[in-house]
Amino acid sequence: MEANKIVYFVGCGPGDPELITIKAKNLIESADVIVYSGSLINPRIMEFAKHDALLYDASLISREEISRLLSDSTKRGLLSIRLHDGDPGIFSTIREQIDKLEDEGLQCKVVPGVTSLLAAAAEMNLELTLPGVTQTLIVTRAELRTPVPTRERISELSKHRGTLVFYLSVHLIENIIKELLKGGAYTRDTPTAVVYKAGWEDQTIIRGTLDSITKKVRQARIIKTAL
Length: 227
What we know:
With about 230 residues, this protein is α/β, with parallel strands linked by helices. The protein is built from 8 helices and 9 strands. The strands form 3 sheets. It has a 5-stranded parallel beta sheet, sandwiched between helices. Strand 2, helix 2 and strand 3 (about 55) form a beta-alpha-beta unit.
């Protein structure tokens, strides 16, 4: 298939412009059309785009408009990318967009990026799978508008006593703590951390325990963009 019939879904990392892959940077620099994830992407990364590139903030348009933009511009022979924060494979809704584009005969390629989880762990010098402690990492989100299967409820996942990571859920931290303790495997003194905007200039790391972390997060007024 011709190169100009490819739509790229590109992960640009957690926020630090130096934590972007060479492949992602090359695509951003060459793209004619970029649909990007609004305030979730550091403006310094958007500076890689060429001066005449058409930039569209995905937070201001519908998914249908995003698909139409990517489809129409690619069919016109323009290099078009959907730029995601972190890695496109985690909580990004790319599959729905790819299905529509492939139905129109377009090819889609995903370029992986450094997810905020890995940036957060690096900032804290953490090994997420520590011998003698846990060899299991569970990545999930708290239930609210998006349903979660019964087997994936927090109280059930906590029974594994692995390293748990919650995306898109810091505003529900009080409920998360209750469910973790309800599972019975964790105690109130279990080490806990919340990382706000991992990899950004204004990154904030709050450390505590299951017993203390909620109060600390509330005092810091962190309600989004945190792990």
